[in-house]
Design a protein that fits this description.
Low-confidence stretches: none
Order of helices and strands: HHHH
Distance between the termini: 56 Å
Oligomer: single chain
CATH topology: Methane Monooxygenase Hydroxylase, Chain G, domain 1
CATH class: Mainly Alpha
Shape: flat
């Protein structure tokens, strides 16, 4: 048990050393910008100078659309192992999978009726 904690502690020390090394070497070799100017502090947008305000309000529907995609994508990942082992599962495992798919279908119908899948 102590050997496992020793290994984790060793990895923690290696990660800490690498992090400090990555920040320390450019600082020691003076590889950072020495003088700041307005040109250096401008955000880079495809080689063009940016125009307009930086704070643009996005519709919340875009975030909801992305969250719905993420939820269904992660749930599809859970279905792949179940589908591969379908022939070797007991009845209750198949029943749990069917209930899971029914819950997904109910969630999809709910989201569809709320209009979260319509892109504007």
């Amino acid at each position: 048990m102590l050997e496992q904690f020793t290994f984790v502690g060793f990895l923690f020390l290696v990660a800490l050393f690498l992090g400090l090394f990555m920040f320390g070497v450019p600082w020691l070799l003076r590889l950072r910008p020495r003088k700041s100017s307005s040109y250096k502090s401008d955000p880079y947008e495809c080689g063009l100078r940016p125009h307009g305000e930086a704070w643009v309000q996005f519709k919340a529907q875009y975030y909801i659309f992305a969250l719905v995609f993420l939820v269904f994508d992660v749930e599809a990942v859970f279905l792949f192992p179940w589908a591969l082992a379908y022939h070797h599962l007991a009845f209750y495992a198949v029943l749990e999978g069917v209930i899971f798919i029914l819950l997904l279908t109910a969630a999809l119908i709910y989201v569809w009726r709320k209009g979260a899948l319509e892109w504007m």
